[in-house]
Amino acid sequence: MTNLHILTILLLALSSNFDNVGVGTSYGTRGINIPFDSNLLIAVITGTGTFVSMAIGNGIGNVINPNSANAMGALVIGCTGVWVLIQEVSRRDEEESDAPELLQKTNFSNQSFFRKMLTILDHPFLADTDFSGHISVKEGFPLALALTLNNLTNGIGAGLLGLNKALTIASVVILSIVTIWFGIQFGRYSGVHWFGRFSGCISGLILIILGIYEYFT
């Protein structure tokens, strides 16, 4: 494995976890903590999702021409980056309401499980359903699934590219823990919540650059 492939894996794993920075920043500014066991659960579920999506990508890659698989993987990653950027640019720049007010506004308790996961991605502090100031393992489960579903296309693209599965999964798991911890610390000690908004744009740009690079190599 070349150093460039290792760099691709690390950048892909980092971009897949940039949402965690936004989530952590949101929690840090509100004084919400994610204990290590909940953080570890999120990392394990994210790693499992990466394993499954890479297996799907590998399976597709095994039945088509290797050059086509590489091109398809690059396009999947690049298009995912474009989609992330579009989502971030089109997102309305509005201040988050207080949790009880937002719970009522979004009718959160009556939403389907899948819809709740999407709502949590937009308003991460809603995962703290009992307003205890920390995310328990039970509360961390839907958050973990939401973050995982948001990154499945990256895993499929990585599988199509034939990236090393063990190194990719390990990188995703480790960076999942680190990025959430960093986001919480940054939000807690800086009091800045807008930093998390830029994480999505940075993630999208990294994916676009990776997609272009992999397509032409």
Lay out the secondary structure.
Layout: H1 3-16, H2 18-29, H3 36-62, H4 66-90, H5 99-106, H6 113-122, H7 137-149, H8 152-161, H9 165-190, H10 195-215
Helix pairs in contact: 1-9, 1-10, 2-9, 2-10, 3-4, 3-7, 3-8, 3-9, 4-8, 4-10, 6-7
Rough outline: globular
Summarize the amount of helix as a percent range: over 70%
Task: Give the number of domains.
Answer: 1
How far do the termini sit from each other?
A: 15 Å
The chain-level structural class is: mainly alpha
- Major pleated sheet: none
Tally of separate helices = 10
Low-confidence region ranges: none
Q: How many strand segments?
A: 0
Mean pLDDT: 81
Please give the radius of gyration in angstroms.
17 Å
* Percent of sequence in beta strands: under 5%
Protein architecture, described:
This protein has helices spanning 3-16, 18-29, 36-62, 66-90, 99-106, 113-122, 137-149, 152-161, 165-190, 195-215. The chain has 217 residues and is mainly alpha-helical. The chain has one domain. 42% of the residues are buried.
Short précis:
The protein is mainly α and 217 residues long. It is 76% helix and 0% strand.
Key phrases:
mainly alpha; 10 helices; globular
